[in-house]
Design goal:
The structure is a homodimer of 205-residue chains. Chain A has 205 residues and is an all-alpha fold. Chain A has two domains: 54 residues, Homeodomain-like (Arc Repressor Mutant, subunit A), CATH 1.10.10.60; 138 residues, Tetracycline Repressor, domain 2, CATH 1.10.357.10. Helices cover 69% and strands 0% of the residues of chain A. In chain A, helix 1 crosses helix 3 and helix 4 packs across helix 5. At the A-B interface, helix 5, helix 7, helix 8 and helix 9 of A face helix 5, helix 7, helix 8 and helix 10 of B. The structure holds a DNA duplex (30 and 30 nucleotides).
DNA sequence: AAATGTAATTGAACAGTGTTTAAATTTCAA
DNA sequence: TTGAAATTTAAACACTGTTCAATTACATTT
């Protein structure tokens, strides 16, 4: 059955080539401004071929979207070695933010863009599996913090959401260029500075 | 000069009609999916006419964008009557969030969408005038809070950004449907609940 | 009232888009 | 070598933002 196998691999390889081309184009010029023809040009095939590998443009987006979460989860691995739960929580915030700042377009795809997410969520009623994993890890870390006496009087689910919202807010305002309202000489480091203010607060809870 | 005046008014009226049509279409189906032809259809003119009133589609977006900030600033007026700066800060957060939840598409246009913002910022080098106003008011409120002894050890500019990021994060994750990761029965009120957790924290600072 | 000049408006055209589909080509087992 | 199956293509469809020459409408002047 070696031949069937090779054909399988060839098919898989072309699918991969489409994804690589789509990713670089999406990150280069944005999802909306990347056309199917652009992608086809880059892999030197005709536009039609793409529809044999993906239902539509959204499905390409979705595939890349999933890849982004794998990347983020991988970065999060180091957290296992941080014993103190409060330190772990802060390290998690730093990893989240550095991922976002190092891969702003991918972050955009994962957490800000709206375009094809009906597809992501509604399909398979699996409640946005990729995002759920990281959120649950945050939630567990908050639980651990509470077990050792932090966050007294707080409600863990809503608190987790609030903390996520804070780090997301810090990076997403920056990515979408709403930082121009802060003093010009503070703009360059405003995300890190804002995170530091947040840590000052966490240290008191 | 009555005739020239009337023509002036007519011109202004058609401009307004374009904006009204564009706004309802943008909020109905999104900016990207609204075409110039859609707008022209709704006002019963030919597509070309729109380019006599606006340079391009971005300029229409920009005009609506400005309108949104007027709306928000108007809602903020009541804050003048809140004497206690810490209460004023919290009231500001509540107004911000209720504005966002009541006008999610307008909020999207103002703070989340990226599309035509190069235009908004780069033109006139005026540092995003509309957004700057509300941020400065937040910044002033933080200063007032510090004057009466709150936020000791904090840096006001970065703290203001962090607080804005938190409320923005709360609403923008919700608007872009990233809330499906929280427990299903908590989803409906997660923005309000998250805000409450934030207030619990502010009360201790 | 008729002619003129100007501003408003149109509709066709251009170059692009996502997607579908019939046809052509290639591949490969029998 | 043949014939069927899989792969790939090119053309078409209906859309997009934008431009622009031509037309229409109309206030002003003669």
């Amino acid at each position: 059955m070696g031949i069937a196998d090779r054909k399988e691999r060839d098919k898989e390889e072309l699918r991969e080539r489409i994804l690589v081309a789509a990713k670089s184009l999406f990150l280069e010029k944005g999802v909306e401004k990347t056309s199917i023809r652009n992608i086809a040009d880059r892999i030197e095939y005709s536009p039609g071929i793409i529809y044999h590998y993906f239902k539509d443009k959204n499905e390409i987006f979705h595939a890349l979207h999933q890849g982004g979460f794998l990347q983020l989860m991988e970065k999060m691995q180091v957290l296992a070695s941080v014993r103190n739960p409060m330190e772990r929580l802060k390290a998690m915030g730093s990893i989240y933010i550095s991922f976002a700042m190092e891969n702003p377009d991918m972050y955009d795809l994962m957490f800000i863009k709206e375009a094809p997410l009906d597809h992501v969520f509604n399909s398979e009623h699996d409640h946005w599996k990729e995002g759920g994993g990281t959120f649950n890890y945050l939630r567990m870390t908050i639980d651990n913090c509470m077990e050792v006496g932090h966050f007294k009087g707080h409600e863990p689910e809503a608190l987790s959401y609030m903390i996520w919202a804070t780090v997301h807010g810090l990076v997403s305002l920056n990515i979408r260029k709403r930082c121009e309202v802060v003093l010009p000489h503070r703009q360059e480091n405003i995300v890190a500075d804002g995170l530091e203010e947040f840590y000052k607060i966490l240290d008191r809870l």
